[in-house]
Amino acid sequence: MLDQNLSQNNFLTAGQIYTDVLERERRGGYLGRDVQMIPHVTGEVKHKLRQLAHTGNDG
Predict the structure, then answer these.
(1) Count of helix runs (H) and strand runs (E) in the chain
(2) Which residues of the chain have a pLDDT value below 50?
(3) Mean pLDDT over the full length of the chain
(4) Count of structural domains, the chain
(5) Does a structural domain hold residue 28?
């Protein structure tokens, strides 16, 4: 694991997660329902982790 070059996809902040969730809500991605910490925010964290696992370090 050491001595690896990482892409910016390997670094994620809570603000980035919240921004993505709010943008999805504004586009109607939650069908007009209230945005909730569980399952929406935790789901976004899982989505980002799965996306990174699928693409690897290269983004």
Answers:
(1) 2, 0
(2) none
(3) 90
(4) 1
(5) yes
First-to-last CA distance in the chain?
17
Q: Which two tokens stand for residue 25?
A: 């809500």
Contacts of residue 10, defined as CB under 8 A and 6 or more positions apart, other chains included, come to 52, 57
List CB contacts of 53: < 8 A, sequence separation 6 or more: none
Asked if residue 20 belongs to a domain, the reply is yes
How far are the Cα atoms of 11, 18, 59 from residue 54, in angstroms, in the given order?
A: 16, 22, 9
C-beta neighbour count of 12 within 10 angstroms: 15
pLDDT at 24: 96
Torsion angles phi and psi, residue 42, rounded to 5: -65, -35
